[in-house]
Amino acid sequence: MRVINLSVLAIALIAALGCSGFSSPDDVSDHIGRLEGIEYVREGGLTVGSSAMRMARIGVAAAGEQSPDLLAKLKDVQVGVYRAVDPSVASRGVSASDFARYEAVVELQADRGEDVLVLSRTSGGRTRELLAVIDGDQLLVIQVRGDLDDILEEVVRFAFGRAERSDLASPVLNSLESSPPG
Question: How many C-beta atoms lie closer than 10 Å to residue 101's C-beta?
Fold first, then answer.
């Protein structure tokens, strides 16, 4: 009976992992490398996890700044910078269709020929992950996880305020709320 229970647990874990997103920027670079036939090697990276987030909240609160509670909604932020092992192999470029479990937020090709993607994943009607990928001379992957809806609202309001177009923030936020979850 114990063997059956362990088998069921193992199958459930494998199924759950198959339904999850990428666990790190390295997983994303491996995924893109397989699609492009390019081997990437990590040049640098940074992970800011829950302990660092806790310290940041304390620092923000001590400085008297607003919204340290928004930091509490961040689970982690990870950044990875990669280069192709063989620079003579050209990237085919990345697109949102390469990431089936994500919804495209931004997809464009920059003036310098870089592919820029910002993707999101939702769960329970809430944005739980943002994934930014810039594929050019190097591959840059930024992964942000947590309960991100309130943070995104603050970022949109801040950005339109800085552009002196605060009047556009609400229509943009309304359109995001009315978008079907990915």
Answer: 13
